[in-house]
Amino acid sequence: xxxxxxxxxxxxxxxxxxxxxxxxxxxxxxxxxxxxxxxxxxxxxxxxxxxxxxxxxxxxxxxxxxxxxxxxxxxxxxxxxxxxxxxxxxxxxxxxxxxxxxxxxxxxxxxxxxxxxxxxxxxxxxxxxxxxxxxxxxxxxxxxxxxxxxxxxxxxxxxxxxxxxxxxx
Length: 169
What we know:
This protein is an all-alpha fold and about 170 residues long. It has helices at about 5-15, 25-45, 55-80, 105-120, 125-155, 155-165. α2 (about 25-45) packs antiparallel against α5, α3 packs antiparallel against α4 and α5 runs antiparallel to α6.
């Protein structure tokens, strides 16, 4: 068994209190937000309140590119520090570099940006509603438990990190 497999096996056997969560809420909520916006847009279409011009499309694309870049950079930082990218696994290292220098949850922020990009590019207002719902639900179901987990695991180092970074923006 490789060291990675051994780590995953060990983590899966940890009591729930030693992990932020036992269920991977963020990817499930992200997919649910996309599906909900698409279904709502098909059955309860609302008029897009913005304009459909080049500057608006550029902003939509910029949000998408920024969202993807933030997610990729964040994942690269986690992997390069040897800790998990899975939200239901145990963090082994407190990562405070890259986008984590400024934001405590850059992957979730990137996902919100992708939802807002989809709203602008598809002119589907429900993506905005889904982005707001995703942000609220991921905060309650993942971020708050994750913060408790990181505080218990890293103590004063996490307290200092929280003092110099922001949960969202």
